[in-house]
Design goal:
Helix Hairpins, mainly alpha
């Protein structure tokens, strides 16, 4: 996603909330709570599945997961917008940080936490 596409989506979400007078409810606290609920709804779809089943969802189930992912993405964008955080810049910074924290030569093929391999 380009920066301009993200900015357009952010503006669309602002307009959507403004038209419904919902901005009054969209505090970072409330949005983060809503995000948590939506993430839980994603987890619910996978809760009792095996690894194999989770990788081979039916189209109906995949459609449901897609909707929940969209909800989480929307809430994430709204929180970042409210806090004036550039999500693309933040994500790129985090990737750079993780590259230092998890060097390939020490962690490749391992699921250990960074504190376990030092």
């Amino acid at each position: 996603m380009s920066s301009s596409e993200l900015d357009n989506l952010k503006q669309c979400l602002r307009d959507f909330a403004k038209a419904r007078d919902w901005d009054q409810f969209h505090s970072p606290k409330n949005l983060s709570m809503a995000l948590s609920v939506e993430v839980s709804e994603i987890v619910e779809h996978f809760q009792w599945l095996t690894e194999e089943q989770s990788n081979n969802l039916s189209q109906d189930k995949l459609d449901e997961v897609e909707t929940e992912l969209a909800d989480t993405f929307i809430y994430l964008i709204r929180i970042a917008d409210k806090l004036d955080i550039d999500l693309l810049e933040a994500a790129n910074n985090k990737i750079k940080h993780n590259e230092q924290k998890y060097p390939v030569d020490k962690v490749k093929g391992s699921a250990k936490k960074y504190t376990e391999y030092e």
